[in-house]
Amino acid sequence: MTDFATAAARLAGAAGVLFGWSPETFWNATPAELAALAQALRGDAPAPLGGSEVARLKELFPDG
């Protein structure tokens, strides 16, 4: 079993190689940001919203 420090160092290195991230960028990123980039690399990222979906969301969640 790999400890946290070893796994984090490996992931930080991969983020540097794959995304051009500095260590500071890696440590300031959220897990969701890292997951979104990994998902995009895998090619299974969801399709972007179309105009009708954006309009519906604007109606449901107005910014005021």
Describe this structure in words.
This protein has one domain. It contains four helices and no strands. It has helices at about 5-20, 25-30, 30-40, 50-60. The N and C termini lie far apart (about 50 Å). With about 60 residues, the chain is mainly α. The model has no long low-confidence stretch (mean pLDDT about 90).
Shape: elongated
Unreliable stretches covering 5 or more consecutive residues: none
SSE string: HHHH
Mean pLDDT: 88
Beta-strand percentage?
under 5%
Per DSSP, the total helix count is 4
- Based on helices, strands and strand pairing, what is the structural class? mainly alpha
Rg, alpha carbons: 17 Å
For this structure, the quaternary state is single chain
Q: Give the terminus-to-terminus CA distance.
A: 50 Å
Number of strands: 0
Tell me roughly what share of residues is in helical segments.
Answer: 55-70%
List keywords for this structure.
single chain; mainly alpha
Element layout with pairings:
Elements: H1 4-19, H2 23-28, H3 31-42, H4 51-60
Task: Characterize this entry briefly.
The protein is mainly alpha-helical and 64 residues long. It is built from four helices and no strands.
